[in-house]
Design goal:
Nuclear transport factor 2 family protein, alpha+beta, about 45% strand, Nuclear Transport Factor 2, Chain: A, globular, single chain, 4 helices, 6 strands
Length: about 140
């Protein structure tokens, strides 16, 4: 596993999540895959399920021209199946039409066991923002 940048206040599991997210934002799904278990389950926005980081990368390529995360906090708790890590912050980037955006809230929930992410759930406000951009109040 290759750490991109060690954060001194993060637990080992939160650092794995941080490094996974950094790789995902490049985007480098092959590097991101080094942080996940072979049987990872990634449930993305809208209930889309992927088994490799390339799934969310491909989906994001249709939704955004580019997107990054401002990772504000990492909350860590012991779960029944491993360590649970929440990454909370905001998305910023560019819509396909070239309009910049920021302040789009996100919450990502990870389950980490034996040094690998084996489950990830993703939520953000992009769908509501897209509706508002189309003149439809959410």
């Amino acid at each position: 596993m290759t750490a991109t940048r060690t954060q001194p206040d993060l637990s080992v599991e939160a650092q794995i999540v941080h490094d996974y997210l950094e790789a995902s934002m490049k985007p480098d799904p092959d590097l991101a895959a080094t942080f996940v278990a072979d049987d990872v389950v990634i449930t993305f926005t809208g209930g889309r399920v992927f088994s490799h980081p390339s799934g969310p990368t491909s989906f994001n390529a249709t939704r955004y021209k580019w997107v990054k995360k401002q990772m504000d906090t990492f909350d860590v708790a012991q779960g029944d199946n491993g360590t649970v890590v929440y990454s909370v912050g905001t998305l910023y980037g560019e819509w396909p039409d070239g309009t910049l955006f920021e302040g789009n809230r996100y919450v990502d929930r990870f389950e980490v066991k034996n040094g690998k992410i084996f489950k990830m759930d993703v939520w953000n406000d992009s769908a509501e923002r897209i509706l508002i951009r189309k003149g439809i109040e959410a």
